[in-house]
C-alpha cells in the first residue's frame, strides 16, 4: 500500500526555480570536455574522482571543493580532479540515512522536496566555489533529471548495474557514466551493462516514450567484490584489469576504459589503504603499456577530517563510511600527479 504524502515538483519546475547560471555552464562544459578527452584517449591526463562517501551537509562540502579547486591549479597539467558530491546513499539493508536527497537534515526525517532543492543548490554552489563540476551517483534513475545540467560525471553503483532502467537511462546521458561491477564481481555482467549503456534505447521515462543515442562514454569501475560468505575480495590487480580489457575487445565496445575504486571491497573499507591501492595501480600503469592505456582514473573517498562519526558533530567528518583526511588527500593527489 502506498500513502501519498507530498507532491514532488517536476524536474522542469525545479530547474526553473533554481537555474544554472550561464557563466557556470561554460565552466562545466570545459570540465566535461576534459573528462571526456581522458576517457576517449584524446588526453593523457588522469581522472581522480574524489570526495566524501556522502555529502550530508553543504558547508563542509563547499570548503572541501574549494581546497580541491586550488589543488587542481597545481596539478592541472597531469590530473582532472572531479569532486565526489554524492547526494544519495544506497543502503545494503534498505534502512538508515539515504542521503541529502531524502534527508537534507540527517538528524531529521525525510523531506524530499527540500532535499531536491538542497542538492541542486549544492552542486551549483560547488562549481561557483571551486570551478570544478562534480560526480554524483544515479541511485534513482528518474531523479537524474534534477541534476543532469550540472554534473560532469555520473556513477551507477554495484547494486544497480544489473538494473534495466539504470542501463537505459545511462544510454541517454551525454556525459561519462562509470558503471561499477556488481557485488558478486562478475565482469561479464559489468560488460553487459556497459554494452547496454552504449546502445541506442527506447523506453518510458518521465511520462514519455524516449529514444536515446547511446552513450559512448559509459565505462567500467572496479570496486572489488563480495563472496558468498561476505568476504571482500579486491579486483584492482593487473590480472583482473587485463581480463576486463579482453572483454572490452571481444564485445567491440567504444573507448575501453576502467576507473579503479580504491575503497569499498577493494580496501575492505579500510580507508587508510586507499593510497597503497592507488600506488599499485599507478605502478602497473608505469610497467605495462596496455594497463596504462585502459586504466583512466581512480576513485578515492576523502573529506576534511579523517574517519567517520555517527552524528554530525565534527565539521567535515563523514557520517557514513570513513574517509581519508585532507592532509593525506593532498599528499595522495600530489603523488598521483608525480607518477602519471
pLDDT averaged over residues: 97
How many helices? The count is 10
- Helix % is 25-40%
CATH topology: TIM Barrel
Tell me the layout of helices and strands.
Blueprint: H1 11-17, H2 22-39, E1 46-51, H3 58-75, E2 79-83, H4 112-130, E3 134-137, E4 151-156, H5 164-170, E5 177-180, H6 187-198, E6 202-205, E7 208-211, E8 218-222, E9 225-226, E10 232-233, H7 238-251, E11 258-261, H8 274-287, H9 289-294, E12 295-301, H10 326-339
Helix pairs in contact: 3-4, 3-10, 5-6, 6-7, 8-10
Structure in words:
A hairpin with a 2-residue loop joins strand 6 (202-205) and strand 7. The chain has a single domain (23-339), classed as Aldolase class I (TIM Barrel, Alpha-Beta Barrel). It contains 10 helices and 12 strands. It is 38% helix and 16% strand. The radius of gyration is 19 Å and the shape is globular. The strands form 3 sheets. An 8-stranded parallel beta sheet has the order 2-1-12-11-8-5-4-3. It has a two-stranded antiparallel ribbon with strand order 6-7. Strands 9-10 form a two-stranded antiparallel ribbon. By secondary structure, it is α/β, with parallel strands linked by helices. The chain has helices spanning 11-17, 22-39, 58-75, 112-130, 164-170, 187-198, 238-251, 274-287, 289-294, 326-339, and strands at residues 46-51, 79-83, 134-137, 151-156, 177-180, 202-205, 208-211, 218-222, 225-226, 232-233, 258-261, 295-301. It starts with 10 loop residues before the first helix and ends with a helix.
